[in-house]
Design brief:
With about 180 residues, the chain is of the alpha+beta class. Helices cover about 50% and strands about 15% of the residues. The chain is built from five helices and four strands, in the order ααβαββαβα. Strand 3 (about 120-125), helix 4 (about 135-150) and strand 4 form a beta-alpha-beta unit.
């Protein structure tokens, strides 16, 4: 019987050791999991751009503010997908494809109603880069997207200066 009691004592000591070991192992796993989830963020590789608008865009915006004469609000570099969206009823795949085509493009300027900031029209400034093949294709796509949505897009050629009266004439239909 001595052997039996020794075995029982051995079993109970293993059991009590096991009771202490399990929480320690679980605690160690929890700490490891938390460390993995709260790793310090990797340093990202970005730098600040010195300006938001080109010199031509700044000159145009100044003339545009005068032309609008407080009748509307002007916003710059607005994502096309914030103004247009694919029509409802497309398959999920076709909707996503259509959305992707506008998600990374922007209008140079968007004119909005002062009262509710509803979008009135968009403006694109066309400089020499718009003569390049890929820019021509982009411009045709943007023109067609706006036309299909019944959304006014006004294009202006870039210049070193702008005549306010010309801007007012082109915008008068919409303001």
């Amino acid at each position: 019987m001595i052997i039996k009691s020794e075995i029982i004592m051995l079993d109970s000591s293993i059991y009590s050791s096991f009771l202490y070991l399990v929480p320690l192992v679980l605690l160690a796993l929890l700490i490891r999991l938390l460390q993995r989830n709260f790793k310090p963020a990797k340093k990202l590789d970005y730098q600040r751009l010195p300006i938001l608008f080109t010199n031509a865009e700044v000159a145009f915006m100044k003339a545009l503010y005068i032309a609008v004469d407080g009748k509307a609000s002007i916003f710059g570099k607005v994502r096309i997908a914030d103004v247009l969206e694919p029509v409802k009823g497309l398959s999920r795949s076709n909707w996503q494809t259509s959305f992707n085509k506008i998600a990374m493009k922007h209008f140079d300027f968007v004119i909005c109603n002062n009262e509710d900031l509803s979008v009135i029209c968009a403006i694109e400034l066309d400089d020499k880069s718009h003569n390049r093949k890929h820019r021509v294709e982009r411009d045709v796509f943007v023109n067609n997207a706006c036309e299909s949505a019944g959304f006014p897009l006004i294009r202006f050629k870039t210049s070193s200066s702008y005549r306010t009266i010309e801007l007012q004439n082109k915008l008068s239909t919409y303001l």
